[in-house]
Write the structure tokens for this entry.
Amino acid sequence: MKLAKPACTDPVILNQWHVISALDEIGVGVVNQTLLLEERVSYSITPAGECLVWRSSPELPAGAPVAPAALDRAAALPVKPEYGYLWTSLGNPPAELFPLPEYHHPRRRNMNAGTVGVSTSAPRAVENFLDLAHFPYVHEGSLGVLPHTEVVEYDVEIRDGEVHATKCDMLVPKVGVNFDAPVVMRYRYRVPHPYCVMLYYDSLPDPSIEDICAIWVQPMSADRVRAHNYMGVIDDDSTDTDIKSYQLLIFAQDKPILENQHPKLLPLDPRAETPIRADRSAIAYRRWLADLGVTYGVVPARV
Ligand SMILES: [Fe+2]
């Protein structure tokens, strides 16, 4: 079968692993569908537990039974079930996804705290997640509190090919659903993938173990995404519904902000949007994307 030329021509993005679904939300034995980089993609899990992803051509309707042997192998796409999610690629991905050794800690509760469609680009979603300065304004009473709007100096570096922001101290009224008192939380951020970002913080029951809150962003197109909210927490008391509800409450506050940003693509030209001190991680992220050569979901810098 002759395959059409891909809509995304950015080799950096084409060759990434991209998240398309939480594993426990995939209909077993039937066709599930989504959009990745403007291409229709189908996926399934067989009753034996094998993950399958393929280009939706010829298209089988969503919900139709899947007969793996009958699928066109030329349309098959790379498959990686990892960290509770299904990842695939439209190009030639690396052997491994980014490491997340904390995922396997025996006390950790890993879950998808909701997948939300957002009319924005993947880099805008990541940059917003990195931005501490919006906490008191957008998440007043939960992740921040007025008038405590100052963002203290924090460290940003590129380490092991990833963006790291550390010593991000913030007065936080309610860090997670199980936190019941305001604390000055020392957050750290990690961006190991152009469209994935994690936030780490000391867990309440055992501060020697970090909770992880992340968004792994699926680029449906350059300016439309599904944000998969990964949570990996040390919390023996809250129900899954409690944890997911709190995370979705936070994300619901971000969604209209994201959808009203203009342009939807993230400008990489350092002169495009005036930086302030609190934007140091955003500046590092934009520069890192430019250095990687990412052109999809961004307005590339003029040279
Ligand atoms: Fe936010």
About this structure: The pocket of fe (ii) ion is lined by residues 134, 138-139, 254 (CB under 6 Å). The mean pLDDT is 92.
